[in-house]
Design brief:
Keywords (chain A): Ligase
GO biological process, one term (chain B): mitochondrial seryl-tRNA aminoacylation
Strand order of the largest sheet of chain A: 1-10-11-12-15-9-8-4
Shape of chain A: elongated
Largest sheet of chain A: 8 strands, mixed
Mean pLDDT of chain A: 93
Helix content of chain A: 25-40%
Pfam families (chain B): Seryl_tRNA_N, tRNA-synt_2b
Organism (chain A): Citrus sinensis
Structural class of chain A: alpha+beta
Radius of gyration of chain A: 27 Å
Number of helices of chain A: 9
Protein name (chain A): Serine--tRNA ligase
Oligomer: homodimer
């Protein structure tokens, strides 16, 4: 229509233009709706699975490694709840009044134990190249979703804050993943290895009535979490590194445990592969999960928008310095979940008189304390 | 979808009749901040999302409605009446909106109604006793009538008594604590400096603020936290993490030496416990975060769960004093502080804190107050800080 035209020619083109425009508007609306619906459905598709992961339910999981043996006691073994009561290091009753069930106060040596565990674990992982971090414990719910959790699902594990679009974190994995959201990292920065300390909050909805007293399942706890951002080709090997670090830590503390390659039905949407460490808890008479190490490949990074720019040899540069970006891979692993560790230490190191020995590596981080002794009431 | 919640005071007694009405009076609870007589209009709850409020009209029809309280402070009304001048002066000095006149009026009324109730009960018992003996049918009939009237009268009076007691309780709980005689009266500019330690450090180079320093040292991240959580949130990194842990470890060992029992506490507590400590979880501009779908809040200080540790208890004297050093994360909305142009760590929504808490006998609290401030002065001097100690004013 830019050229010189007869009036009738022009009029025909104007009509044509108008029809095309109306058709386009309708189609563009359809496109938006389709794209939104496609996005919503596709986001439900779980991450792919590592070929070595066993297929099936809980009983299909494979034991990768066993370390140590169940301790042998020549006296009746107590559980951590009983031990803690006699040692005056917990209070569950007052917490039930003040907050509700599955809350607790730690007192006296249990406080030293928590601080010793955090201090020791942090120094161990810093030695292995992890950057220490503390994180927000209130985050936007969109960030929770992007990490693969469902804040508003039925039986959600996530506490929401009233009157806001914010939630409490159930793990530092969330704010750490979020630290680089919507970013393009330069390749030279990778791998980024963080050790994040935070309090964690979980509703444990759907776990009511699971008759475990004490610290095994609680609404609030302290945890040191390892998190890695890396190049895709390296995530398998960093997964191995993370589980090795966990195994080293728990061996150093003298725990008996097995490392399990979790079967497909236990993976949860984000994980490509997940290794759990289950430690022997003699008071409970069974193995209990003390840590979990997941390789989430690009599931979280595609949602959080975390990319890196691979460095390219200069001859293949079409535009100056701008190659295509790729999504990073993310991994997370528990370095220390305080309540489960306290259970393991109390139950495994209990003595006949009700006292508990502190394992050597922790003593320098607990002012030299060697033993927790019962208090005379 | 956000759930809108009405002030979550569940009805103290169950009823199949739920009424949804705007509550025009804030809960008459001990207010940490000045409590206004005409609090803001509250939003209605959706039927499925919040417990209903039972609303009761006051007998005086003052236009406000009293809410059945979830808990009651043990208030010494007689002491208030016997010391009303001192209480009134204190209310004035503290700039509080508590209504002492109303409290005294309600107390008198309540006493009178209580007397009537007692008298009617006596009469009813007398009638019941008379009916035990041998009586003429007409006599018996009269007594039955009399008994019936007394009973009806009693029921009405007893209902009035309950309403009066609730309203009295609500009003009296607004009265602020009494004040130590040495506390200066007035606003912020009237506070007294008790002590000064050290001097401002002298620098022979341009001084930077913590925000600038932290950025260059790569020990904070506020930008990422603003994306992930919002403003006034932060990550600590590298040596700042060691600094936090060092401070906590050191301070804890110092206070343990001074006889304090270390504690970690729940950071989610029932909102009633928050109120009982003197905070207003659901006031306008509240500092308190609430949990959606629950009658729970996040703590702004470990003072709350530590105070709650012994709630509804009778402690043996030999246990006192109880001295706790409680470590917790603290969460504050800082509502009303928006726009105070302070960047960095000065005013944040979440932080770690070690708090000392003492339960003691009444005669000893002044001296434990002195002990606590001495401990603080020792700690901060040891760290080489320059500071001044202010005696806080009545208005706050």
């Amino acid at each position: 229509m830019k050229g010189k035209l007869e009036p009738s020619e022009r009029q025909k083109l104007i009509e044509e233009g108008k029809n095309l425009k109306e058709g386009l508007v309708t189609l563009e609306e359809d496109l938006v709706k389709l794209t939104d619906e496609l996005q919503q459905e596709a986001q439900c598709i779980p991450n792919m699975t590592h070929p070595d992961v066993p297929v099936g339910g809980e009983d299909c999981s494979i034991i990768r490694k066993t370390v140590g043996n169940p301790s042998v006691f020549n006296f009746p073994v107590k559980d951590h709840f009983q031990l803690g009561k006699a040692l005056d290091i917990f209070d569950f009753d007052a917490a039930a009044e003040v907050s509700g069930s599955k809350f607790y106060y730690l007192k006296n040596e249990a406080v030293m134990l928590e601080m010793g565990l955090i201090n020791w674990t942090l120094s161990e992982v810093i030695k292995r190249g992890f950057t220490p971090l503390t994180t927000p414990e209130i985050v936007r719910s969109s960030v929770v979703e992007k990490c693969g959790f469902q804040p508003r699902g039925a039986n959600t594990q996530v506490y929401s804050i009233e009157g806001t679009d914010q939630c409490l974190i159930g793990t530092a994995e969330i704010p750490v993943g979020g630290i680089h959201m919507d970013s393009i990292l330069s390749e030279s920065l990778l791998p980024l290895k963080y050790a994040a300390f935070s309090h964690c909050f979980r509703t444990e909805a759907g776990a009511a009535g699971t008759a475990t007293r004490g610290l095994y399942r609680v609404h609030q706890f302290s945890k040191l979490e390892m998190f890695i951002f890396c190049q895709p080709e390296e995530s398998d090997s960093y997964h191995e590194e993370l589980i090795r670090i966990e195994e080293d830590l728990y061996s150093s503390l003298g725990l008996h445990f097995k490392t399990v390659d979790m079967a497909t039905e236990d993976l949860g949407a984000p994980a490509y592969r997940k290794f759990d460490v289950e430690a022997w808890m003699p008071g409970l008479g069974r193995y209990g999960e003390i840590s979990s190490a997941s390789n989430c490949t690009d599931y979280q990074s595609r949602r959080l928008g975390i990319r890196y720019r691979p460095s390219q040899p200069s001859s293949t540069n079409t535009k100056k310095g701008k190659g295509p970006t790729r999504f990073v891979h993310t991994l997370n692993a528990t370095a220390c979940a305080i309540p489960r560790m306290i259970i393991c230490l109390l139950e495994n190191y209990q003595q006949e008189d009700g006292s508990v020995i502190i394992p050597e590596p922790l003593r320098p981080f607990m002012g030299g304390l060697e033993r927790i002794s019962p208090k005379c009431s």
